[in-house]
Amino acid sequence: MYQVISDVLERSAKQFANRDALCVAGAGDKAISYSQLQTSVHHGIDFLRKNGVERGTPVILLSESGPQWLTMFFAIVGAGGVVIPLMESIPQPNLQFIAGFSKAQVVLTSERLVLRQESF
Fold first, then answer.
1. Across residues 3-8, what is the average pLDDT?
2. Is residue 51 included in any domain, yes or no?
3. Within a domain: residue 117?
4. Count of structural domains within the chain
């Protein structure tokens, strides 16, 4: 029996709503509950769908590791998109090649990295 990862989050949010899903070290050890994670993911899904992401849409995920990355990952999957995860340190020529080759029309990134995307 296989499980879709977005379904696993939905079930976990119902079963463990107030338990910690993520703990952010170094940020005052802030914890994010399954319920909070699910709410953030649903907002991301709505945003992506309003911006044209549907089943099979390639979406580049270029961000630092952390809770935002995981939230964006689940949102892309939940909206039906295909996640193209890239490390933040990827050289600009490689980023441009992958963006063109994948035909990705959507790039999710952090505020810190947004200027890198303006050149492709």
1. 76
2. yes
3. no
4. 1
Q: In this structure, are strands 20-24 and 30-33 parallel, antiparallel, or unpaired? A: antiparallel
For residue 77, CA distances in Å to 31, 32, 53 come to: 23, 20, 10
What CATH number has the domain bearing residue 60?
A: 3.40.50.980
Q: How far is CA 84 from the centre of its chain?
A: 10
User: Domain range spanning residue 41?
Assistant: 5-112
Does 118 fall in a domain? no
CA distance linking residue 75 with residue 44, whole number of Å: 5
Q: Measured in Å, how far apart are the chain's first and last C-alpha atoms?
A: 41
From 5, 101, 116, 12, select the one nearest 64 (Cα to Cα).
Answer: 116
Each residue's pLDDT tens digit, 65-112: 888 889 999 999 999 999 999 988 888 899 889 999 999 988 888 766
Query: Per-residue confidence at 118, pLDDT binned at 50, 70, 90?
Result: low
